[in-house]
Design a protein that fits this description.
This protein has two domains: 143 residues, D-Maltodextrin-Binding Protein, domain 2; 35 residues. Helix 2 crosses helix 3 and helix 7 runs antiparallel to helix 8. With 179 residues, the chain is mostly helical. The chain has a two-stranded parallel sheet with strand order 1-2. 44% of the residues lie in helices and 2% in strands.
């Protein structure tokens, strides 16, 4: 992660999410380390942009490189809701294959619903990962709740002290586990 900061622009900490999307859309970058969730915003800023995606290689051994992917949108209801019938109708509507397809097409997302597929050509570079199962989950899906990893990572990227970061991450992890 720290190595990647060397390849960014001069103000990595001073550019907001939307600014980055707009800058990339306007041609101020060749590669953009981002997720599929940014595609709709990039395309809003530049509808005629030609995009493609690929898994970021993390080793020099292609057999060990996988696509980071994971479910990050969930739909649920409280078991004690007073409006169970209405909530179920809404959930059934949202889980309808036609509705799901429309959602993933508009949001450039992927579906966990069987037989609903993301077919946008933008994703041609990662299609094989889904077909072969060459996937891995986001690391933060494994962090204990409350660890505050985003703050620890931000401090690490600002101060660039790997040993201090790792010790603090271990310490915070242990605090959470011992609660």
């Amino acid at each position: 992660m720290l190595t990647l900061t060397k390849y960014g622009h001069k103000d990595n900490m001073g550019v907001a999410y939307g600014d980055g999307n707009n800058a990339f859309a306007s041609g101020k970058g060749v590669f953009y380390l981002q997720g599929n969730w940014a595609i709709p915003e990039i395309q809003k800023a530049e509808p005629s942009i030609e995009l493609g995606v690929f898994p970021m290689p993390v080793t020099n051994d292609p057999a060990k490189n996988k696509l980071v992917s994971g479910v990050d949108v969930i739909l649920t209801m409280n078991k004690d809701t007073e409006h169970k019938e209405e909530a179920m109708k809404f959930i059934e509507f949202m889980m309808n294959k036609e509705t799901v397809q429309k959602y993933i097409d508009e949001q450039k997302a992927f579906s966990a619903i069987q037989d609903v597929y993301q077919e946008d050509v933008v994703f041609e570079g990662i299609k094989e990962n889904f077909e072969t199962g060459e996937l891995t989950s986001f690391p933060d899906h494994y962090y204990p709740a409350g660890i505050g990893a985003e703050n620890l990572l931000q401090e690490f990227l600002i101060k660039k002290d790997k040993e201090k970061f790792l010790k603090k991450m271990d310490s915070e992890w242990e605090k959470i586990q011992n609660r």
